[in-house]
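Class, carefully examine what follows:
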Amino acid sequence: MDVVNVLKELIAIESHTDGRPIISHVTDMLTDLGAHITQCGPEQKPAILAEFGAGGPVFSGHLDTVVMGEWDYEQGQIINGNLYGRGSTDMKSGCAAMIATAETLRDDVPFSIAFTTDEEIGMKGAEDLARTDALRKAPIVLVGEPTGLKVGTGEKGVLWLEGTVKGKPSHGSMPWIGDNAILSMVKHLNSVTPYTQKEGMTINVGLIEGGSQINVTADTCTVQFDVRYPPTMKKEDVIQNMEILTELPLTVKYDLPPISIDSARKEIQILLELASGACTCYFATEAIKFSPPAPVVIFGPGEQEMAHQKNEYVNIDQVKKAEKIYTEYFKRISPSP
């Protein structure tokens, strides 16, 4: 099985709006390799557990992507050793490497593969998978998100926060009579710009909605922040800091805590011997849904900065190397069949 061809097949299947087609395709591939398949998760965004024996480590990956957006290349096009396509880095390349690894490992050691299609929004599939014995009792769950083939020993937490400013409506030709909530919101956002350093807390102004129609002074404006924070910070402190920073009362719309992974664990040390170093992930992953009770680690092909980018691509050599490392790693840590 050629891992690059597998990746091209995955990229060719749109998996932003409906996860069923790509899950069906992957289920057929893994069934042909001899896996026992269990499906769970939401109806339109299903998840599967593919078991090749019991009691072994677990590969974890998501097959859904963000929206396509503008693009300059054909999906699956290869230029100068890079393969372009939505999801090429985040994270169909990691999933392709897992599928190719399965063909090599299936007769040698017990292991499982857990695939979801609602990681970008929701993670309900991962929550269902986390209740299975395969995930709860796994010696390690390897989440194949892009880390540049470095061992991800932690990931930032996520806080989606919402704040609203009220104004006073007036006729658009007489703005001096009203109080424009959009202009007021701008003043609250001026202090956000310094928080873009990747190692600490970061703030993305993701959505702004204000006003009702063009010829009426906006009487309300709502902003949504995507805040990412390192394991050294507490959620409550982040919220307090954000309210002081923006001078807005804020409501939590979604949150995931950060993860700190103990690199001294034997399972992590073995992977560090095969990898290109260690890193902390700037994004959140489904690892938070599996740990505890299972120990987790994050490791995959592709650079973190390519996720969600226009003209997203992954280096083919990294994908091939990921397959080799996955194979060797699971051979080292898996119990005998």
